[in-house]
Amino acid sequence: MSATKVARVAAPLFLLAGLGFAQTSSIAGEVKGPDGQPLRDALVKIVRKDIRGNYKVKTNRKGEFFHAGLPLGNYDVILEVGGKDVDRMSNVRTRLGDPTQVNFDLQALKQKQDALQRAAETGQLTAEQARELSSEQRAALERQAKERQQALAKNKALNDAFNVGMQALQGKQFDAAVEQFTKASEIDAKQHVVWAHLADSYIGLAGTKSGAEQQAAMEKGLETYVKALELKPEEAAYHNNYALALARAQKFPEAQAELQKAAQIDPPNAGRYFYNLGALLVNSGQLEPSGEAFKKALEADPNYADAHYQWGMYLVAKATTTPEGKIVPPAGTKEAFQKYLELKPAGPFAESAKSMLATLESEIQTQYVNPEAQKKATKKKK
Fold it and tell me: Which end of the chain is more exposed for a tag (fewer CB within 10 A), N or C?
């Protein structure tokens, strides 16, 4: 073959190579983040649809990206942020010459999605919004609508059971209260207020029972208080109520520990917590523990009037009498009653406090005197 013929054959090859190079295209754009500012280092994935081909590029500090050398064709352009696909442009057709522009605005996307969500929740999707939905979005909205319906039904059942339980508890219908709060706890086991009222109901029920039934109800109440506290350990009122229940169950050290927790959580009301325990212990005939509780109440709140009165009554119980009949109260007894009258001069214990002070000033007759002999002695004096 001559050199001339070789040159003629080679020329079309150069022409074809030039045509192949000319068929490449490019995609460019910018990405704005949820705050409306340029988003740096976002990953843009360019996926060819007609034949296999995957390309990637990251945005610069201005949120811009550019990818050249793409074969002409159809592409899906996907924006990935934080390892997740957050937006996409489908069926992007590239062209010769200037880059095909693809922009992403996550702030505008969020606003659009929020509007779509509100419309879907109210059932007021516009025709335009409905057309814009992809099959995945449509399925997601249908799933969300179903979940909302289930949540609404669950909340209604929970509220109904809770409200009926509250009415029963307030009416001291403890069996009914236990039933309703148990139902509520089965509907939603994470509602601490439900467990707390269920515990109150069991403790109330225990007060109406005796023997093994009383013990069973009491233990159930204590267990339920623990569940409420597991969900809401920072609720001082739950520790207080649990402590009172423990005291009724004769578990005094545990009750003291719970009240100490309540006092630490809620220092302004610590006096009330210890006073409540003291009152319960008095009613249970537990003199020494009650005295300790009233003392702690006064340490927490020196101006707790009722605690001063109860502390005085505790001290009176420890008073002694001399052979001459003089009452000798422990130190601080009179001061306790006097402080109560100072703080609550017209309080419910005012008359009792005055009477106790008068008694402490008097003497008790310690020797037996025959009434008849006393009458005769009186006549002789006349």
Answer: C
